[in-house]
Amino acid sequence: MVATDIEKDIQESVKSASSSSSASDLYDSESDDTALAQKLKLINNTLDEIGFTPYHLKLFFLNGMGYATDSQLLMLESTVRQFVNYQFDQSFPISNEAMVIGGIAGACFWGYGADIIGRKTAFNWSLFLSGLFVIITGAMNSMATYCLFIALSAFAFGGNLVLDTCVFLEFLPFKQQWLLTFFAFFWGIGQTVAVLIAWAFLTNFSCEGPDSAHCDSADNRGWRYTYYVNGAIVLVLAILRVTVVRLKESPKFLVSNNRDEEAFELLKGLAEKYNRKFTLTLAQLEDCGSIVSNHGIQEDRSIVGVFKLVIKHLSILFGTKKMARSTLTLFLSWLILGICYPIYYAFLPTYLATRGANISASTTYGVYRDNVVSNVVSIAGPLIAGGLLYFVPILGRRGVLAIGAFSSAAFFFGYTAITNHAQNLAISSIVYATLYIYFGCLYAYSPEIMPATARATGNACCIMITRFGQIFSPIIAYYSNTASAVPLYVCGGLITVNGFLALTFPFEPSKSRPS
């Protein structure tokens, strides 16, 4: 009799905790794993109960380091590429292809792995290896070895971007989810750092071009110094991640793998440290039962077992018709973006050259000055996106995505009418900012609508797909006539399609909590 009463009390407490939040959960009607859905609801309620703490603020900047690093290292490769090509007598952008392939492999390895080994391990190692490989890249003496370490560095930081949003999201209370979009302002910071370092070294320690009398390593060390300094910065950030701000494992990953006690102790410790309300009990979590999403294969760490688990996580992304539609439209958006964005920057220099000598900066110094200005302005994009979500919540993620896409398309088309350097600098800066409204919101939206069990896997697929699209851009630019305005119209048209796709996304996480 007593046991029965206790059991009823526990069941009532689960129901009470499950309904304590005013916000519904995104997959209330979509989950086929009742135990997992109940546990995630309890975790969400507890995160809302604890609220935003100094730990969340530390996590904001900790993960922001990863965002900044990704954009910093992508900008680094494109900025030094021509000077590396001068030295190794190369014209085809092979290093870009190496970086993209490495990024695809990294997103796959770290993203899929994070749903198996945990967020914390993959999160810390990816940034450390990025810094190490970037430093080594600067010491290479042939195009083959240079491309090898470009690929390895991209492999490392390719997983970093996958995990930054996942880790931050899985600790956030519902009311602060808008910070995930605001988060992307770190991109502009990372790119600006890369360009400033390149500006300092490339303008003073580089050969003048492929026709110079000498363009060997002694006369062309600017790109090496640029790699060394950028790599050292990333390495320092990686060390700070494990010494100053120590990441805790995600409670949602823990309960998704039947590690209820660890998740409970983690949340309890967070609440006690910051003197916050905490009503969750371990019994509530355990009474939900064992999850079935990974049942039978989660303990099998053989190659076959891991492969089965990856397949299982991929299948979760298509678990229902609504989830399948959401996943497919999201993947299509990422593919279009991967093709559109690099084509714009690959075609632009040649197109501008046809518009007259006064369109672009006439000196190397001027080119880097303009690049710094554009990257600083780009920081406004995520700030605008976050502000719209916070002050105009009726727009939701889909509305902000559409605003970013349609405004970017308008300025893509407007680029065809520029006639002087001032217009070029202004439009290019605005394009950066408007694209980052869309980029920032899409990077935040993607993990928000992924089920927790397969969140890193789904986010990895998004990054892999957009990287796959990037493979074709330099090939198209290399073999095509880039002197016409057609590529700008194509880019504008593609980003317009993405705006309409955003309006058709079936889930709106601003009105429902992610799992």
From TrEMBL:
GO cellular component entries: membrane
Protein's membrane topology: Multi-pass membrane protein
Keyword annotations: Membrane, Transmembrane, Transmembrane helix, Transport
Region Disordered, residue ranges: 1-26
Compositional bias segments (type: Basic and acidic residues): 1-12
Biased composition (Low complexity): 13-26
Location of this chain's protein in the cell: Membrane
Keyword Hydrolase among UniProt keywords: no
Main location as per UniProt: membrane
GO molecular function: transmembrane transporter activity
Chain ranges passing through the membrane: 122-142, 148-172, 179-202, 225-244, 331-352, 372-392, 399-418, 424-445, 486-507
Xref: Gene3D superfamilies: MFS general substrate transporter like domains (1.20.1250.20)
Ranges where the Major facilitator superfamily (MFS) profile domain occurs: 52-510
Family matches, as SUPFAM superfamilies: MFS general substrate transporter
Protein family according to the UniProt entry: Belongs to the major facilitator superfamily.
Protein name according to UniProt: MFS general substrate transporter
Organism this protein belongs to: Candida tenuis (strain ATCC 10573 / BCRC 21748 / CBS 615 / JCM 9827 / NBRC 10315 / NRRL Y-1498 / VKM Y-70)
Organism ancestry: Eukaryota, Fungi, Dikarya, Ascomycota, Saccharomycotina
